[in-house]
Amino acid sequence: MKTTTKLRELIKSKELIVAPGAFSPLCAKMIQKVGFNCVYMSGYGVAAYRLGFPDVGLMTMNESLDTARAIAQACDLPVIADVDNGYGNVINVKRTVEEYELAGVAGIQLEDQSWPKRCGHMEGKVLISAEEMVQKIRDPFVTTRTTRKVGMGIPFMDMVTKQCGGHLLIQSRKGKGTVVEAAFAKDNIDRPPLGDIVSSIKVLLVGTPYLELKFIYKIGTSGFDIDTRVIRSLLGDEADFTRPEVYTWFEEYLKQEISQLRCEQEV
Predict the structure, then answer these.
(1) Is 104 left (phi over 0), alpha (psi -120 to 50) or beta?
(2) 71, 22 contact by CB (below 8 A)
(3) What is the pLDDT along the chain (267 residues), one digit of tens a residue?
(4) Of 23, 50, 43, 19, whose CA–CA distance to 117 is shortest?
(5) Phi, then psi, of 11 in degrees rounded to 5
(6) Strand, coil or helix: 76
(7) Distance (Å, whole) CA 70 – CA 226
(8) CA–CA separation, 130 vs 119, rounded Å?
(9) Rounded to an integer, what distance in angstroms lies between the CA atom of residue 219 and that of residue 264?
(10) Is 4 exposed, middle or buried (0-12, 13-18, 19+ CB in 10 A)?
(11) What is the residue-wise DSSP string for 185-197?
């Protein structure tokens, strides 16, 4: 039985779950040997064990992730890991969730603190807004297996469209894939937080290399569109948007088209 299934069964049982804290693989083995059915990777314990300092935001995600992976591999119990505040905003949280899932962790604890965070029982904590925390909890976990390929671009574009007065629509249909529609208010498309639309589209493509994107840019009645499916058909195996030469070419092409369109409007 998978450890994620074991954890779900423990939660469904409505019995009190006792999960002793572990900061190393040896701790996890000891916890399993004495008969407990769940392990908790202690953030404070790991910080003290690896750095010799309190839990005040000094641990990086990679350091915590390496420890979580080693603990998960050392025992057959479900591991619940302390992932601090997810190491950033909602985009970072999505990556954190995916990385800890790949590491074999069954569940995580996510805090509503700003960075640098500190252990919950210490003074001087600064909390983020309830709205931001809701996004952190909701967005990384609602992604289905079908839409998971869309990757990091979804929370990024969701955040951007909302702050630019637009909207993001995701539709998944069995056998027909997933369609993502992002719309921006015309007056905000080249302003912060979206900033330069070209750079934002590049971030979307690099962060979601498997996404098929049709980009439509209009000023008045004039405009142009770019379809990644057409680009992939032309470039074949070379159409990998994570490759610097590909996304640099795409960036320059977008800049040229948008600049030409704006010049035409000024004439």
Answers:
(1) left
(2) yes
(3) 889 889 989 988 878 889 999 999 999 999 999 999 999 999 889 999 888 988 888 888 899 999 999 999 999 999 999 998 888 887 788 888 888 988 999 988 888 887 877 777 777 778 878 777 777 776 555 443 334 444 445 666 666 667 666 777 766 666 655 566 666 665 555 554 445 667 666 666 666 666 667 776 666 677 777 777 787 787 776 667 777 777 778 778 877 877 777 677 665
(4) 43
(5) -65, -40
(6) coil
(7) 45
(8) 19
(9) 10
(10) middle
(11) -GGGTTSTTT--H
| Sequence-ordered list of residues with C-beta below 8 angstroms from that of 84, at least 6 positions apart, any chain | 43, 57, 59, 64, 111, 113, 117
Query: In this structure, what token pair is assigned to residue 173?
Result: 């249909």
- Give the C-alpha separation, 64 to 43, whole Å: 8
67 torsion bin: left (phi>0), alpha (psi -120 to 50), beta (else): alpha
DSSP, collapsed to helix, strand or coil, labels residue 131 as helix
Please tell me whether residue 80 adopts helix, strand or coil conformation.
strand
